């Protein structure tokens, strides 16, 4: 987010890939705490941790910006398309799904597909607004109100999915696996907010913004 907020296209980020034991799932034995290449007789988490080669993530901000541009460039707006302003809106919306310093809204968990969901609703709402959500660091609260009214219409469904997931985990004694998340109408996780046809990551039709 900081890289995008600079509006500098030639920006690169190299960071260590941080995965909790819960995130490291072995598809060989089905257990968490290690991956398939570390699975074997006499395995211990401490041994795997000591022998593990450090993994890094390399991010090109220019590529992220390009994907954002391609996602929104054909959107028909009643005002001038301003890509840099759109980048600011994206950074602003990401705050609501949480990060290392800020908690997420109760109904918006990034690991459950919340970023895809909120961007789908943002894309659906944008043509009905009189401008972007932010402008030169200032928030347009009336436009934000329109978007968050749309999000509020889905909150009950968000919470229902989370309760269903928790009950399923309890039922099968398999806590932390098979996370429900926001799913498309085929049962799979939605890959992005790249549709204007109306499909949201919940498999429901996004509500139309209030005029």
Automatic annotation (TrEMBL):
Q: Which GO terms describe its molecular function?
A: 5'-3' RNA exonuclease activity; RNA binding; zinc ion binding
Give the CC-aspect GO terms: nucleus
Task: Kindly indicate where the leader peptide sits in this chain.
Answer: none
Look up the domain of life of the source.
Answer: Eukaryota
Q: Which Pfam families match?
A: XRN_M (PF17846), zf-CCHC (PF00098)
* GO biological process per UniProt: nuclear-transcribed mRNA catabolic process
> What are the entry keywords?
Metal-binding, Zinc, Zinc-finger
Disordered: region residues: 169-211
SMART domains from the entry?
A: ZnF_C2HC
Q: Which Gene3D superfamilies match?
A: 3.40.50.12390
Q: Where is the CCHC-type domain?
A: 24-39
For this protein, the record's InterPro entries field holds: 5_3_exoribonuclease, Xrn1_helical, Znf_CCHC, Znf_CCHC_sf
List, alphabetically, the PANTHER family matched. Answer: 5'->3' EXORIBONUCLEASE
Q: What is this protein called?
A: CCHC-type domain-containing protein
